[in-house]
Hints:
Helix content is 19%, strand content 33%. By secondary structure, it is an alpha+beta fold. Strand 29 (402-407) and strand 30 (412-418) form a beta hairpin.
Amino acid sequence: MPFENLPTPPVAAKKPVTDTRHGITRTDDYAWFRADNWQQMFKDPSILDPEIRTHLEGENAYMEAAMGDTAALQKTLFAEMRGRIKEDDSSVPMKDGPFAYGSLFVTGGEQPKYFRTPRDGGDQTILLDGDKEATGKDYFRLAGIDHATDHSKGIWGYDDKGSEYFTLRVRDLSTGEDMSDVLENTAGGGVWAPDGKSFFYTLQDENHRPSKVFHHILGTPQSDDRLVFEEKDPGFFMGVGGSLLDDVIYLDIHDHETSEYRLIPTSDLTAEPKLVAAREEGIEYSMTEGGDVFYILTNDGDAKDFKIVEAPFAAPGKENWKEIVPHEPGRLIISHMAYEQHLIWLQRNQGLPEIIIRDRRTGEEHSIAFAEEAYSLGLSGAAEYDSTVIRFSYSSMTTPTQLYDYDMVSRTRTLLKTQEIPSGHNAADYVTRRVMAPSHDGELVPVSLLYRKDTPLDGTAPCLLYGYGAYGMTIPASFSTNNLSLADRGFIYAIAHIRGGKDKGFAWYEDGKMEAKENTFKDFIAAADHLVAEGFTSYENIIAEGGSAGGMLMGAIANMAPEKFAGIIAAVPFVDVLNTMLDDTLPLTPPEWPEWGNPIESLEEYQWIAAYSPYDNVGAKPYPPILAISGLTDPRVTYWEPTKWVAKLREFSTGSAPILLKTNMAAGHGGKSGRFQRLEEIAFEYAFAIKVAGKA
């Protein structure tokens, strides 16, 4: 047995709270973990209710006792992972006007440093030193730095609590000194007006919603900032962006399935934001400027997998949309960019990504694609509108990331950089495969695999099976140095590309949300079944892992098929789904209703969620070992969700396997902020998997 002689786990007090909706009454014994002052606590964790703090600290102590014998393994894993990172690494600078901008890390540094050089090379000037700014802080996350059009100043932001309320500062890039401007409670980052004397930013309200855009004039207090636009619907997020030609400010208003844009011409910064196309439920669109036209990516008109239309710059309303890249079922267009001579888009066809380039004058198209069975592409484009050279990245589960510049005219690619693995990496030692797992209804679920070529495929290999399956997010089959620590110990690392993502097109997403949500969970279980049936592993060797909405997946499969998993890792798990969707004061609840359903308004949608909500469906059964991880100041999945879930699992489980809760008392949704601190967390999670698999 991997867990023996453990102390008695914490037992949470029961303080029953009843709730009646649609004539249905539920009792929640652990609702008290939700602190009444949670909004204030996110900004000042020291005011957390002492009873809650004592319980969380007790859980951490129990977790440390259970995992204490892995301390040496964690150090070894951390050393391996750190050894694969080039500590003094630097990005390849991106050219923009007289300069080229990039970021770097120094040996031992946790935070990035942002720099610039003369356009064609030369001495680096450090614009922002993350390690210096983080000094003395338990948590520190940079939001990057955005330089003005004239390159004289930069907006930079930071979060020093993990609550994702960012403070913005303005830096004089010639002196390296910060100006007097300090803006609190922002979403991070800003968009400069062309003259460099003011910028636009998004403010987070007390419920952590980016609901207002303000215009800030340098040298004035934040209290004097002009409100540009307020989004009244709490179900919508708002962001602000700019164009490469600096002649328009975009206000992007959206939830998970509906979008709306408003535009401010930079020739008149005080102009009322002009509506492009009014929001229509289920209709999405995004815009990029192409000089005298806008190119608009949209699913309007039953274009489920999206199409591209163009509209005049002066009149971009829907009545003027003209289709230029038609909808093709099964070919999902993910994003698009426009430059003076070319239109570019990233698409996914047959589950694999491609970059398509169209000459705007001739209409001629060509593609950038690769031949591996499973791979990932990243498109970063260019910082200048008149560029004919774009940048993209390529990797697979066995191939380290390669960064290329691509000349769209000559169609030649230049390798700029290959991810360096200081401790060594021989891609030929590993195998990457993609297999198709038949699900309960006959759909085939892609599963990407990574393992050493000498791994026995006779059912004896342990397997870490990862899944997410929400919001249309596609989990790429990309290179990860961390996964090699598992593969080198005989593990098969597997990614189940389940419904709820867009791995096989938009329909794949639709078939894993709202009333169809349980397909996500059944697909993941089907992936486990297939890996066992094909001899890759066995049920007693599969450790499941997922985070956030993927943590919901972990909670659901723990209830549905606990016997098929040797262990479960649930990071910041969204497990108290019904209570959260019934609480419209929480940061993400109204924007989440299109994804899960609105149980406040609809009995039917209440019943959908109640049928699978992990916390509500914990039952008397032998659960496998479970590790839940949370962050005290997490505004996305609040700390009380995994806390309540673990308390209820421990109450109901009929087995002896430990249920562990680790709460980061100085971090939020993303865990710790430094690059090596994050490796320590991954080493901890992997140590749990290795311990459960009996390989420690």
